[in-house]
Amino acid sequence: MSEIYSHGKKHLIAVDCIIFGFDDEGLKLLLFKRKVNPEKGKWSLLGGFINLNESVDEAALRVLSEITGLSKIYLEQLYTYGEVERDAGARVISIAYYALIKSNEYSEKLNKHHNAKWFSIDNVPDLIFDHNIMVNKALARLQRKSKTQPIGFELLPAKFTIPQLQKLYEAIFQKKFDKRNFRKKIISLKTLKKYEEKDKLNSKKGAFLYSFDKVKYKKMLEKGYNFEI
Amino acid sequence: MSEIYSHGKKHLIAVDCIIFGFDDEGLKLLLFKRKVNPEKGKWSLLGGFINLNESVDEAALRVLSEITGLSKIYLEQLYTYGEVERDAGARVISIAYYALIKSNEYSEKLNKHHNAKWFSIDNVPDLIFDHNIMVNKALARLQRKSKTQPIGFELLPAKFTIPQLQKLYEAIFQKKFDKRNFRKKIISLKTLKKYEEKDKLNSKKGAFLYSFDKVKYKKMLEKGYNFEI
DNA sequence: CCAAAAGTGTTGACCGTACACCCATGA
DNA sequence: TCATGGGTGTACGGTCAACACTTTTGG
Q: Which residues are within 8 A (CB) of A166 and not within 5 positions of it... i.e. 6 or more apart?
């Protein structure tokens, strides 16, 4: 090893995951009751240290799948937090990731086992360290990305209705949309496939089911379409 | 220290800086000839290890100001690169930052001393490790941010002309704009202050000088203005 | 039969884009 | 006087935002 490397100081590096979910009640955040000191018993994001033989992305994926049991998760690096005193226990640099989980693929049983709980995005409790800052940044990122890319689909089941999709976007952007304009915009993207089936869970009339056409979406992205609503 | 921290493995953490500059010839990148093995003699980004007693942001700023002699630099964290084998010399996790430098405040003499050289953004050589990937991501970020925030100003002297500003935006977005539309858009933002002086370096007629009004700009950002051209 | 959610079109305002000529001046 | 870059206005088309009524059907 070149001498320059031996002069570098070594650090503890963690990953912390902001886990978003979505259901009838709106956008949710999965939080965990901390099991160790300091700050034992307080709510926190899911975290873990990075091993020597895994990449940072792999570490985030490992931590997530250990807890959720899911392997196909939308996961994206958010930001790295490196203040010296950010963690009261030791100097730890934390690389934050955010994940989007399809709630219908996630088992609620896991929560009791891990002391976890879903919180509504507009009712997030005080979290340890700088975790509230991470959550705010993740929400801002989700909003920004949703304007140009349909990542919101990652939070919905494979088949969904347009009113359901609208509720998702209203939850992400925290504002209401006109349903005629919303439908018009979504349809104009030509990336939805309509089914004959209806979902009657939320209304007597029933709403047609749609799915998302990934091939058409990729073409759309290349052309530089703007998903803004 | 809680037991959990002592189980974490420690890593070498570096910062790497993508340094942008701008002059008559266009958008530039400051690159350095590597002085150590492996890859000695190849071009690379400016980098350094993070000390135990400094935050990650502070480390990036320290590395930058050691080289450029500048202290007021626009600096923003870009992304963290954590593949196990990304650095051929050792397992190093690198936190990339990008910097915008006003070329008139930067002394060209510094370059010889540090084996550094400015490269045109559309003529970047092969760099060590994953540094080309970092550069591409930084340019994409600069483009995206420039659509909603006038960070391009960080690359210009305090007083500049509108044709100069247009050249900067054309360099960032790598495409030409209609000068009437550009001027109209920029003026409509109402964040420029016009001076009576003219700059005659680039034309016989001379172009009026402007400066950027940060107070008006901040108000604009709160209202959510779109800087897109 | 009625409550509740799904579905449907039109219009005006604004913004982005395309486009051509005159002005000032140093050489 | 002329070559060079600086400066100016208008018209079209597309996208966003506002707005109200009909349809379906389970209870």
A: A177, A179, A182, A183
